[in-house]
Amino acid sequence: MTHRIRKQPLSLCFVAILAVTLRQSCAATDAPPTAAPPTPTGQPERGYYNITNGNGTTCLMAYMGLQINVNVSSGTLNKAVWKVQNLQPNRTNSSGSCDSESSTLRLTDEQNKINLTFVFSMNATTNKYRLSEVSLSASWPDVKNPFSASNRSLDYLHGTAGRSYMCREQQNLPVTVNFSLNTFQLQVQPFNLTGDQFGTAEECQLDEDNMLIPIIVGAALAGLVLVVLVAYLIGRKRSHAGYQTI
Ligand SMILES: *[C@@H]1O[C@H](CO)[C@@H](O)[C@H](O)[C@H]1NC(C)=O
Ligand SMILES: *[C@@H]1O[C@H](CO)[C@@H](O)[C@H](O)[C@H]1NC(C)=O
Ligand SMILES: *[C@@H]1O[C@H](CO)[C@@H](O)[C@H](O)[C@H]1NC(C)=O
Ligand SMILES: *[C@@H]1O[C@H](CO)[C@@H](O)[C@H](O)[C@H]1NC(C)=O
Ligand SMILES: *[C@@H]1O[C@H](CO)[C@@H](O)[C@H](O)[C@H]1NC(C)=O
Ligand SMILES: *[C@@H]1O[C@H](CO)[C@@H](O)[C@H](O)[C@H]1NC(C)=O
Ligand SMILES: *[C@@H]1O[C@H](CO)[C@@H](O)[C@H](O)[C@H]1NC(C)=O
Ligand SMILES: *[C@@H]1O[C@H](CO)[C@@H](O)[C@H](O)[C@H]1NC(C)=O
Ligand SMILES: *[C@@H]1O[C@H](CO)[C@@H](O)[C@H](O)[C@H]1NC(C)=O
Ligand SMILES: *[C@@H]1O[C@H](CO)[C@@H](O)[C@H](O)[C@H]1NC(C)=O
Predict the structure, then answer these.
(1) Relative to the CA of 32, which ligand 9 atom is closest?
(2) So which domain of life are we looking at (predicted)?
């Protein structure tokens, strides 16, 4: 009897290890291939960035936290460093334009001299949109030269017309070797908004994986409980039989 009770924590330990490895392997496969910027200094505040067309109707809506990571030449240290800059929603102005094939969101922080532009493209044949272009220009006082970088051949944040794209988990979007964006609790819809509201959300892979982990661990635990229970019942029957023969 005591033997069986001792086995239980060991098995639990195994499940815990399984859970940890699963989480790590998922995180590893989802991370885009990039030189890892340093750990962020703090999570950026989540803000609404809306665009209204001439009509007064909202044609693009984003609700997210944004963090800029740039490899720049530091003026004070006199060498290349990764600079991390959070976008502060109440200091950031959004502007832009929408048409049926592309939507542009331009974020400006005059205090920090940041211009960050997103271009979303709609593929009319598939009815899917994606983030196709990001550009940044900024001039920080502690950075030697004004920074500027852009990439017009990106392929991120896939969504379907009439729906929004959502990613609760932190996401890293490499733009160039020297510039990547971190998004936090992102929800965006660059096309086909109705009534100033997000459409049905399409969740990113990272979020779906994270919802799967508790399910897998739960199923493993349930299976384990069953095995222990069966083993206990069999064991009890056997020892009963043992007593009868004596
Ligand atoms: C005005 O809004 C309506 C409905 O939202 C839309 O069909 C129309 O294209 C808009 N017109 C302009 C000029 O944006
Ligand atoms: C990246 O940044 C480093 C240092 O800040 C600079 O020397 C290099 O030219 C940059 N590379 C590109 C492609 O801009
Ligand atoms: C910045 O970019 C340069 C050139 O791409 C690279 O050699 C250097 O290692 C980078 N700096 C950091 C801190 O990653
Ligand atoms: C901007 O947000 C910060 C943090 O939430 C707050 O401390 C600050 O007072 C706000 N500034 C303005 C002008 O609203
Ligand atoms: C946004 O821009 C308008 C005019 O261009 C300006 O009056 C306003 O203060 C700006 N808001 C922020 C948060 O920068
Ligand atoms: C999205 O809007 C475009 C016009 O801007 C329209 O042609 C298309 O049918 C709409 N798609 C959906 C799924 O509502
Ligand atoms: C739209 O998607 C289809 C299928 O993926 C692709 O063949 C086509 O080139 C895309 N069109 C545009 C304008 O990107
Ligand atoms: C941001 O854009 C505005 C308007 O186009 C421009 O005047 C300003 O110089 C830009 N700032 C930077 C840092 O590029
Ligand atoms: C733009 O992004 C694509 C896809 O991530 C990448 O292959 C390409 O090297 C990038 N271009 C530049 C100039 O960084
Ligand atoms: C953007 O739209 C949302 C939803 O309609 C609204 O709650 C929010 O106040 C808007 N934000 C701005 C800055 O216009």
Answers:
(1) 5
(2) Eukaryota
56 φ/ψ angles, rounded to the nearest 5 degrees: 95, -5
Nearest to 118 by CA among 186, 57, 192, 196: 186
Model pLDDT for residues 197-229, shown as the tens digit of each residue: 999 999 998 888 877 777 788 888 888 999 999
Q: What is the pLDDT of residues 109-128, one digit of tens each?
A: 988 899 999 999 999 999 99
Distance (angstroms) between ligand 5 centre and the Cα of 144 equals: 27
The whole-angstrom distance between residue 2's C-alpha and the CA centroid of its chain comes to: 47
CATH tag, 37-203: 2.40.160.110
Nearest atom, ligand 6, residue 161 CA: 13
Cβ proximity of 133 and 119 under 8 Å: yes
Structural domain spans, the chain: 2-24+210-236, 37-203
Between CA 233 and CA 238 the distance in angstroms is: 9
